[in-house]
Amino acid sequence: MPSPITPELVYELVSVASPSLSPDGGRLAFVRSQVDRESMETWSQIMVMDVASGESSPFTGGKSDSGPRYSPDGRHLAFVRPDDAGKSQIWVMPTGGGEARKLTDVAGGITDMAWSPDSGVLAFVSDIDPDRAPDDYDPKKEPRVSVVRRIRYRADGLGWRGEAFRHIFVVDRESGETRQLTNGEGDDSAPAWSPDGSTIAFVSDRRPDRETATHSDVYVTPASGGGMELRSQGLSSVAALCWSPSGDSMAVVGSDDDIVGAGWQSWLFVIEPGRAPRKLTDDSISPAGGYAPLVPAPDMRWSYDGRISFIADARGESAIYQADAGTGDLRKVTGGGLMSQVSFDADMKTAVALTTPPDSAGDLHAADMTSGAVTQLTDFNRKYFEQRPPAKLEKVTHSRNGFEIESRVLLPPDFDPGASYPLVLDIHGGPHGVFSDSFNPQQQVLATAGYIVLAVNPRGSSTYGTDFMTAVLDDWGGEDYLDIMSAVDFICERDYVDESRLGITGYSYGGFMSSWIIGHDTRFKAAVVGAPCINLSSMYGTSDIGVRFGEVQWGGKRWNALDAFLEHSPLTYAPNVETPALLMHGEDDHRCPIEQSEQYFVTLKRLGKEVELVRFPGSSHGFVRTGHPRLREEYLSRLLGWMDKHVRGVG
Predict the structure, then answer these.
(1) Is 198 a catalytic residue?
(2) Peptide bond before 293: cis, by omega within 30 degrees of 0?
(3) Which of 365, 585, 590, 621 is catalytic?
């Protein structure tokens, strides 16, 4: 019998990220990271691989190095390393060997960075906070008050924002001279140099309604400093961009729909000064744009022969695509699994992508841009998965009320169709998230422990088209709930599913839906509810996106839609709950504040229900992916333990 994948995978798996191909395509820089169990720190360093041989070796000696970027001439590698105060700074190192040199020293640290075409200057983004405390600030001696003047005064994963904004800077590679190019009220990201190096394009949310809506635009500013020019008139939001080789136009990942933002469903556009945006793709795919500043946009490239290359998602699968800039003709180069990052060589002959298929925690793969042939470049976790085979993924589809509902079913590695298995229903976040053909640690821990895992993409999920995605608006807990329950009914028709042993779990919107379901259905023996939305009325005023997100999702402003807010809140149906519920929540969650779980816990407890609340200190909404390793392990351990106790009756 194979060994299961346990919550200790947090410490045992090696991660790779941030591929950067040298201009000639011969070398690949990337980040290799793993948790050091003794210090409980994630150690990461820059590796460089000879692409032809596949041999790699450490390039930097730091323990927290990330974000490598080859210069266009291939002679330098820029990367990010924290300074003594813990702020990320740009360091530069000759590719031929030598010492790393710290290039920036900015109080707000750096996020995005981009080389100028002549390799002499780097553009980057840094935080400007007029109220930043001095380095020697002692809160015990001089406690400071915080003054709130904006709705967007804090952000999950970033914390307090106040009057702070992110702006574009440039730094000279030789002298280290640093200049700020942008200012004003707006967060700037994704700097991209024009081919002649005279201007820098970037994405910014500096519209007057930035407090209450999710809009963003493309601006261009001279690299020497000066004013800003808006270039994306006609678009509602933009998530990524690249220049044409001639510099007279740009390709952007964006949306022209005020309701459907580029972060949910995007299209590829060409924008040119004085002309309306030209849409190249339809909603059968969704080009990837990242989520600034926490997740930079993946590379996108416009080649001299008029092809735009980019990553896009369709029906829970990722691929590298090429679109003809003139005709919009679309070609799928290669795909499979979940692709989140990509790098191209200068001649657009090769791409290297970070790909996470269902049976691997993520590896770098090289793709021939002409033939689509793929070569796996990294395999650091091979021995781990030889000893602990992942679950088998099966995709199933059923029809309901005008839509095809696709689900992913994970079967234990030693699955026997003649046996009987407990089942756990997993529900994704969003509601515009999606379950992909990719390795999911939570699902693998459950499935390799002997559970069948059902992961449904109900209406509201992204990558299935605009109509499917927007069908959830103003209807949380309506048709989406019925889609999910019909999928449960559909899979329970299989003889090997034990209907008397069902569990349910979900995180964020998945936490909303799992708590909604146990308030409307009593068939589940256990529920693990992660960082849920429980009371839409209070979340409107306490979440960092309560206004700009909530008004679109829940049917309007709180004072105009209070009855709907209450009707669609799981808290309203707490008296109906019979399922033992485990609530798990980060104490520093600004997206779905912990007061949501607190309200649900107190209500269920007062009603005499079986419920526990686990609080994770210092943890934001995304801690289950990027938080302290001990707490990530704890989340997985408690999830499995609660299911074993209440579904299987063991432990």
Answers:
(1) no
(2) yes
(3) 621
